[in-house]
Amino acid sequence: MRGRMIFLSLFVSLAPLKGAAHLCLSDLPQWSVHADAGKTQERMALYKERLGASMLRASLPWGLLEPREGHWDEAPMRGYFEALKASGLRCKLILSVVMDPPVWYLEKHPELRMQDQFGARAHALAPWSRAQWPYLEKKTRALLELAKKMGVWDITDEVVIDLGPAGEPLYPPNWTLGEGDGLNGGQRGGEEGFFIYGESARADFVAAMREKHGTIAQATRAWGTRYKDWDAIAMPQPGTQPGAFWEDVLLWYRDAKRAFNLWRMESVLALIKEQPSRDVAAIVYLPGIDFSEEDWQQAVQTGGGNALVRLMIDNAYLIEQAARLGCLLQMTGAQDPAVCEHYLRLAKKSAVPPDKIWLENSGDPVSASNPGKLVALVKRHKLRGLDYTHTRWLLNEDTLTPKPPLFGELAEAWKRLTKSK
Fold it and tell me: Contact at 8 Å (CB) between 291 and 315?
């Protein structure tokens, strides 16, 4: 990595929530924007009284709340958070900066949009935008101040550190890319992309290689290539440059994301620590199963890489850093018992106890279809709680009427769990 990484000694209390496991729910984003406070409070009463929920995961999206640079407008979220404050539920808050930049910011900095080999462009910000990191920190601070102004901070127990698309510390998966981002026409066939294209990515890669190899002659000797100067380097298409050159591409791809994730974790933790008289924990998402050494070696040998490498799912590193900094963990998409147990083995190596780890299911109907199984995993492993995603599977389109059978199944399973404590 370029430059010397400065590690901060930051420790935020891991346990503002006390006692038994906790049920957290997540509404669809469209249920929170311009929400009717009365109707929303009625829905939240269902969550608390009939499901036994104690927390709601909610977001303050930068792109929505600063529609023009310097012009902040809390109106779109006011009704939702008024209802949340009145409900008695606690808040798991996402200060959505990296995952939700406003349109005006991307128009001002088009180089910050990642691009893959299919031409798809991400909405979440690129990790190599180092010059913009202070600005992103400034906007995170602005969102926190808005949370305080709205009274949301007073009911916030945990903050999700957003590290990428959908808050997850990976490169953009297909499901986070819209039709206008290069996915229309079925060009990809479901294949995940390598987000290494575009001039800002190439410039960052070249700068990293200058630092690593010194001269273009030394670099080409190591790679077995014939680039005459640094300006001649182009990011290769997958499958065209196997071996040493592609491994340097992969290492840069991994380390750029690691540096960004670590900076973001330290930055948000420092901001939380500044706040007086509040015991607030920070959460790092863990997405999917991380790539293996075999996956990596196959990627180097083929000049490609499977979906885990392309997304750069790097959970072992994330867990180590989260443990060192005192963060909670949230296992996203861990409805499979084997996936859950894999995470827990990694966490045990870093001395993270199960009660500092949330279980979250993937936000699709299949993963949400057996809430009893999810609750059983929480109970079996003595986890911090279940973050059930999303409440759309529990309620009808009116957002108030329970939808059988899942609403009742979750209510009954959680009732059994709390009674067993």
Answer: no
Residue extents of the structural domains in the chain: 22-193+258-297+315-420
- Which residue(s) pair with 23 in the sheet? 386
How far is residue 393 from each of residues 25, 88, 98, 396, measured CA to CA in Å? 11, 23, 27, 8
- CATH assignment of 22-193+258-297+315-420, among 3.90.76.10, 3.40.50.2000, 3.40.630.30, 3.20.20.80: 3.20.20.80
**Residue 324 Cα distances to 167, 179, 209, angstroms:** 20, 39, 29
pLDDT digits (tens, 9 = 90+) for 358-406: 999 999 999 999 999 999 999 999 999 999 999 999 999 999 999 999 9
Query: Strand locations in 84-145, DSSP E?
Result: 90-96, 113-115, 121-125
Q: What is the pTM of this model?
A: 0.93
Is the sign of the CA dihedral 178, 181, 182, 188 positive or negative?
A: negative
Query: What is the spatial distance between Cα 5 and Cα 259, in angstroms, rounded to a whole number?
Result: 8
Place of tokens 């640079």: 69
In 273-409, DSSP assigns E strands to 281-287, 328-332, 357-360, 385-389
- Let me know the angle formed at the C-alpha of 412 by 379 and 409, rounded to the nearest 5 degrees: 100
Using DSSP bridges, classify how beta strands 328-332 and 156-160 pair: parallel, antiparallel or unpaired.
unpaired
pLDDT tens digits, one per residue of 209-261: 999 999 999 999 999 999 999 999 999 999 999 999 999 999 999 999 999 99
Locate 203 and state its tokens.
């410039």
* Cβ contact 327:269 at 8 Å: yes
DSSP 379-400: HHHT-SEEEEE-GGGTB-TTSS
Instruction: Report DSSP state, residue 395.
Output: B
Tokens found for residue 110: 């088009």
Whether residue 405 is preceded by a cis peptide bond, meaning omega within 30 degrees of 0, is yes
- As a whole number of Å, the CA-based R_g of the chain is 22
Tokens found for residue 83: 């209802």
Instruction: Find out whether the peptide bond into 22 is cis, omega within 30 degrees of 0.
Output: no
Q: What is the DSSP letter of 355?
A: G
CA-nearest of 194, 160, 163 to 98 is 163
